[in-house]
Amino acid sequence: MLDLADATAEALSKIPGITIVTAGPLSIVTFAAAGGEAATRQILEYLNTSGDVHVSSTMLDEQFVIRAAFLSQRTSSSIAQRLTELVAEAAANM
Fold this sequence. Notes:
Elements: H1 2-13, E1 18-23, E2 28-33, H2 37-49, E3 56-60, E4 63-69, H3 77-92
């Protein structure tokens, strides 16, 4: 699961308008839109209404972030890749 989290953090960091907030040492990646809380909430809604992935949110140091947790052994690299694709789509439409 750590490898999926690491690969996802790396892929997300390459998307314009997306900032990695935390990555490692756990299998959790948190990220946010550079446009602030409203933009991050829009991405969260886009991801969760896609039906392809489900992510949660939290507050870190008073910043609203999206949390992608890779906890299930059934989570594959194709799911992680789909998450990255959806984030890129959402960020491009902002």
